[in-house]
Amino acid sequence: MTTMTKEVWFVTGSQHLYGPKVLETVAKDSEAIVAGLNSEANLPVNLVCKPTVKSPEEIHAVCQAANTDPNCVGLVLWMHTFSPAKMWIAGLSELRKPWLHLHTQFNAALPWSDINMNYMNTHQSAHGDREFGFIGTVMRKERKVVAGHWQRADVQQQLDDWCRAAKGWAESQTLKVARFGDNMRQVAVTEGNKVSAQITFGYEVHAFGVAELVKVVDTITEDEIDAQLELYKQDYVIADETLQDDYAVKMLRNEARLELGMERFLEKGGFKAFTNCFEDLSGLSGLPGLATQRLMSKGYGYGGEGDWKTAAMVRIMKVMGEGREGGCSFMEDYTYNMGETDQVLGAHMLEVCPSIAAQKPRLEVHQHTIGVKCDVGRLLFTAKPGAAINVSPIDMGNRFRILINEVDTVAPPADLPHLPVASALWEPKPNLSVASAAWIHAGGAHHTAYSQAVTTDMIIDFAEMAGVETMIIDNDTTIRGFKTELRHNAAYYMLKRGL
Predict the structure, then answer these.
(1) Is residue 10 helix, strand or coil?
(2) Helix axes 308-320, 153-174, angle to 10 degrees
(3) What is the mean pLDDT of the chain?
(4) Pathway, per UniProt (predicted)?
(5) What is the C-alpha to C-alpha distance for residues 218 and 313, in angstroms, rounded to an integer?
(6) CB atoms within 10 A of CB 485
(7) Is-contact 310 197, C-beta < 8 A?
(8) Residue 66 CB: number of other CB atoms within 10 A?
(9) In terms of domains, do 166 and 181 share one?
(10) Using an 8 Å Cβ cutoff, are 47 and 76 in contact?
(11) Is 338 exposed, middle or buried (0-12, 13-18, 19+ CB in 10 A)?
C-alpha cells in the first residue's frame, strides 16, 4: 500500500532592499538547489520551489497556502540573503505544517579573487539564517535545523530523514485505526486514552464488534479464494505435502478468506491500521495469521491484543520507510538468550511481517494454542541481520512518550525446527542488562514497531512534530544518566503544559 506522492515546499527568504538583479539571482539559485536535491538526494517527496518571499504579506500567504494544501507535508525554509525576521512572525504564527530550517549557501567555496560587496550582499546566509533562527527560537517554534552545504551527503541524508518523518506526520493526521474486539484481559500497556492520542497525533481509533467483520468475510467467494491461493504458491515456499493435504489446504483457504475479507473491510472504511484480540473472535474461524502478515506486508499497521498505539506506529513507520531497504513489523520481546553476548528473541503468536524476512518465507499450518486452539496458516522466517530499532509509543497518563532502542539483528546460531512462528534475534544496545532495565524504567511496552528502514533520527523528528517526549536507548546509555533524563523530562513536560 504505497502512499501518494507528497510535496515539501522550498521557500527562500529575502527582501526588496537588494533590487531586482539580486532577487533574480536568488530565485535562480533556489531553483538550482531544488533541482539538484530532487535529482541527487533521493528524497521521498517532490521538493517544490516556491517564489522568493520578500514581505510579510508574501510570507503569510505561502504559509496559509501550505496549511490548506493536502499534498504539502512540510516546508524547507532558507534565507539566501538577509530577511528581517519580524516579517516572518505572522506567517510562522499560523503555519501548521512542520518546517525545516536549512542553513546553507548556494556556493560551497568563496571566489577569493572576485569577491566584492555585491557578492557579499547576495550570499548572506551566514547571518540571514541566524536572524531567522532567532525568531523561531523566541516564538518557541519546534523545527529541525540542518547546517552545511546542500550538496554534502550528510546534509542530504538529514533532509531525507526529515522528509520521511514529515510524511509519517502527515499520515498520522489522517490515519484511521480499526479495532476489532477489545483489549486483552487486564493488560495495562495496550490500553490508553484514544481522545488524547487523537489530539496529540491526529489519528482516529474506531471500535467494531467482530460480527461486523464476519459479515464482510462471509462475502468472499470461492473463486476469489482460488486466485489468492495461487498468489501464495508464487510468493512463498510451500511443501508438497502441505498442498497435497486436504485439511492443510482448507486452512490456507481459510486464511485467504480472512485476508480478503479484512482488506475489503479496511479499504471500504479508509482504515490503514487495525488490531484484533485472540480472546474475542466471535464468528471467525480463528485468529488470522497469514492474513495479518500479508496485510502488514501491503502496508497496513497492526497491533496484537487490541494494541492500537502500536498498530498506528507500525503504519506510520511503514510510510516513513517506504522505498528504503528493510521492512517494518509488529514485534514483541519474547524470550532471552543469555550467554557470552545476551540476545533477545523477538516474535509473536503469529503476526510478524515478512517485509523483514532474511529469506523467502515458508508457509505452513500449525496449531495456535493460546486463547483459542485451532490450526492456523502462518509464514515462518527469521529476520535479516543488520541495524534496527524497536519503537514503543507509551501513554503516560498525562502525556505521551516514544521510546526507542537501537539493536543489532543477527542470524540465529542454530536452526529453530520446532518454533512455529516467525522471529527476529537481536542484540540490544548497549547490552541487554542496560537496555532492558532502561526500557522498564521508561515504561516501555512488550509490543514494539520494529524496523530496519527507519532511523532513530526519523523517530525523533516525528516526535518533535508531535510535541512529545522521546527517550533513546543506544550505545551511550547508562542507567544513572537515563533515570536522570526521565526525571528532568517529567519536570519539563509538566511545565511546558502550563507555559
Answers:
(1) strand
(2) 140
(3) 96
(4) Carbohydrate degradation; L-arabinose degradation via L-ribulose; D-xylulose 5-phosphate from L-arabinose (bacterial route): step 1/3
(5) 30
(6) 16
(7) no
(8) 23
(9) no
(10) yes
(11) exposed
| 173-202 pLDDT, tens digit each | 999 999 998 888 788 889 999 999 999 999
Q: In the block, which residue shows the cell 527568504?
A: 13
In 298-402, where does DSSP find H-type helix? Answer: 308-320
Task: Identify whether residues 449 and 494 lie together within a single domain.
Answer: yes
**What pLDDT is attached to residue 150?**
98
Residue 177, beta-bridge partner list: 205, 273
Give which of 397, 284, 411 is closest to 337, Cα–Cα: 411
Asked if residue 2 belongs to a domain, the reply is no
pLDDT recorded at residue 4 = 63
Q: Are both 232 and 84 inside the same structural domain?
A: no
Return the amino acid letter for 188: A
The answer to whether the CB of 443 falls within 8 A of the CB of 347 is no
Report pTM.
0.96
Query: Any binding-site annotation on 366?
Result: no
On whether residue 1 sits in a domain, the answer given is: no
Nearest-angstrom CA–CA distance, 182 and 354? 26
Record the cell numbers describing residue 486, joined without a space: 526521565
CB 447 within 8 A of CB 485: no
**Residue 332 known to bind ligand:** yes
Set of cell numbers at residue 442: 521508561
